[in-house]
Amino acid sequence: MPMPDRDLLCDSPQLTDLYQLTMLQGYLDCDMHQQATFEFFVRKLPDNRNFLLAAGLEQLLDFLECARFSDAELDYLAGSGFFRQNLIDYLAQYRFTGAVHALPEGVLFFGNEPLVRITAPLPQAQLIETRLINLLQLPVMIASKAARCRMVAGDAQLVDFGLRRAHGAEAGLHAARAAYIGGFDGTSNVLAGQRFGIPIFGTMAHSFIQAHDSELAAFRAFAESHPDNLVLLIDTYDTERGARRVVQLADELASTGVRIKAVRIDSGELGDEARRVRSILDAAGHPDIGIFASSSVDEYLIRSLVKRDVPIGGYGVGTHLTTSADAPYLNCAYKLEEYDGQPRRKRSSGKATWPGRKQLYRYLDESGLLRFDRLCTEDEMDSGGTALLQPVMENGQRLQSPESLDHIRERVRDQLSMLPAPFRDLDEQATPLLQISDALQQLAVETDRLSNGGSG
Amino acid sequence: MPMPDRDLLCDSPQLTDLYQLTMLQGYLDCDMHQQATFEFFVRKLPDNRNFLLAAGLEQLLDFLECARFSDAELDYLAGSGFFRQNLIDYLAQYRFTGAVHALPEGVLFFGNEPLVRITAPLPQAQLIETRLINLLQLPVMIASKAARCRMVAGDAQLVDFGLRRAHGAEAGLHAARAAYIGGFDGTSNVLAGQRFGIPIFGTMAHSFIQAHDSELAAFRAFAESHPDNLVLLIDTYDTERGARRVVQLADELASTGVRIKAVRIDSGELGDEARRVRSILDAAGHPDIGIFASSSVDEYLIRSLVKRDVPIGGYGVGTHLTTSADAPYLNCAYKLEEYDGQPRRKRSSGKATWPGRKQLYRYLDESGLLRFDRLCTEDEMDSGGTALLQPVMENGQRLQSPESLDHIRERVRDQLSMLPAPFRDLDEQATPLLQISDALQQLAVETDRLSNGGSG
């Protein structure tokens, strides 16, 4: 008995840190409902990242539009001993009514550059902090790592294989979307395919081979079931023998019109295995059968295989992509920059921020390469640059319908073409390009001087 | 208008790799519905882990009991071009009817030891692979890392602060549960508190301080709103000045009976900051106000702070725990070991498995310390050891109601006390203790000899 469709996004505002709610109790008790501006940014890029790509905005906007507390959640809070009835009443009525400015998905950004700016009554802007960071960090990491893979892979097919090693369900879904944004051709993740319209890929695992009485029997059975999608996994027992069985099957199938698209290799030293398999296939007159490789693939391995000119036409990239294994978190934050018209900033050791509502301008050179970015106060007119933060939500409502993923993918291709060579290098650490405008530096000095936080 | 409660577990079997479904099409076409046994195990522990803890079983059993395809999912599959109607009809009726054996949550395990064993008709046992790995890997990683923190933290309070940097919603929820299993005292994650009955912790962020006109005004406002839960964040502007303001407030509050429980430090070199703050508080006659520290805390930092005997009574552990940053994935797999009564195994380079249904026995020495584990065929009677794989599901139904988290936490304490010293060391790499029984080694030889995969 099939069930109705479901919404898999967790839209519960209860998915938050307790301190957001204890702070809200304080704000309500002091009647602090004035407009607050918070900005989300990455303080410093991981050592092994020269750029990041904006991603995850659509999921954030969905959350802001849909998040409501359920009765059971309110009951839990009321019984927790932390809160009084005025907070429970407030949360029962909660909906986000604020404004959002953001970098469009797929735009390049760097350390200390605001990716999203929220302006809303203080309790609302505060409440969303935890989930906002949670929703943005992962897609940014994955889209950026996917772009690194694409930059070194040339035209090779790249498929996200990461769902099983993703950190939970939502991570698998959002990583598939972000990988596609970053330049992958598709995903093995069926639900992501359905939900986001991403092309899906997949054929067989070792268990299919093992369940049959022989490898050749398994190949034959699969060819019968999937004459149009025939990629055969050949390393279950012995890769070269697997390749010879593929040749045998290809010859058997010759008269039927069924074509073996590719073989997949999922173990061993992929470059050496691919060369041996290529020789066997070519010698038997099957240069048209491609080779697809998986197993611990990441951008570094792809680069080394491409440099060696190995005969691999596509890669399944799983664990290392989906967990962003070499940089599994970002040093990112969502910080109050203005309250009730007054700029604010924190000055904690190593974690100081630039105050006030800001805009980010980008400057290119005459050949279209990135020269520098400049962080400015919102009302500065910075001539010659392009303002990157765009209004995307007002009064809690989206200003545009969601962008298509194809459109975002095109933007990523454009953006990556703006990167100067050192930023494209996987190993070199490129020098950040961010300038701070004079007006913003002045505002920081003023903010510190006026701040009673310092002296009062 | 509050909304009804919701179920946040993603129970969609569509959250899977496409190849599971293309293989199912093949199994159906060949009428391969016999019983299959798959085992889930970690091939080799990460270099910086000497043990792992079983975790995530309850969420897996929930999934196995609840997973059904929705109409929209079936429509998507039918329109995908990969499948024929016999598969769609099968999936519309799909429910898991198999048996599960597993290590109870909280049990120690090591490389190549089965954590979960599934026996079910082949298509069912195959279909669940992706989500099974996805549901088990993260809790195992987090429970194990939490236990490492607990082992070095002594009696210090440990609170999970990781939700914001978790990889999505489900990761945040499941990590909070796993951290609690591993020995944490609670979490900042409100929804995890509600859902799993975990104690929740939290007071204020820097934004609360910044939103007020002065730090002291913020402290006073918070004390008024939260007289029973008063932990003050003191590093927004200047930590030592913050500490002196806490002293001022404590003196103001003395006559009211309101007590400041602790201060929190979230930046700088935590040990030095804590000592300076301790001096200020003590000199002012407030030795009862505790110090809670957060910011890039992990087991290595806790160990070094504890060794220096710094005056910190509790830690908020976020990013490094929730992403298992120093080991963000496990080299884990779910492999077919038997089909239709015949043992199977794969022999891929570096990825060979032991065939057949297996049982894992544990042997302790006279002082209760772990001596070795032995992997046996299921029907071997291995005398003197304890069989670790327990039946937990039959015919798709749980055999017991879920264990309480308190019970699992107790088990973890017992289990950790069985670890020999080298396994408790954060740096040393302990030698694995797994033996393979003679019967199992013999079975592997037989399987390879008989397997038509090799010769047919």
Explain this structure.
The structure is a homodimer of 456-residue chains. The first copy, chain A, has 456 residues and is α/β, with parallel strands linked by helices. Chain A folds into two domains: 18-142 and 330-455, nicotinate phosphoribosyltransferase (Alpha-Beta Barrel), CATH 3.20.140; 153-322, Alpha-Beta Barrel (TIM Barrel). In chain A, 40% of the residues lie in helices and 18% in strands. Chain A is built from 18 helices and 19 strands. Chain A has helices spanning 18-29, 57-66, 71-78, 85-93, 122-127, 129-153, 169-181, 190-196, 206-211, 215-225, 239-253, 270-283, 299-307, 319-322, 405-416, 421-424, 438-450, 452-455; strands at residues 35-44, 52-53, 99-102, 108-109, 116-121, 157-160, 186-187, 231-233, 262-265, 290-293, 314-317, 331-339, 342-343, 358-364, 370-377, 386-387, 390-394, 397-398, 434-436. In chain A, the strands form four sheets. Chain A has a seven-stranded antiparallel beta sheet. In chain A, helix 6 packs across helix 7 (169-181) and helix 10 (215-225) crosses helix 11. The longest helix of chain A has 25 residues, at 129-153. Chains A and B meet through helix 1, helix 3, helix 6, helix 7 and helix 8 of A and helix 1, helix 3, helix 6, helix 7 and helix 8 of B.
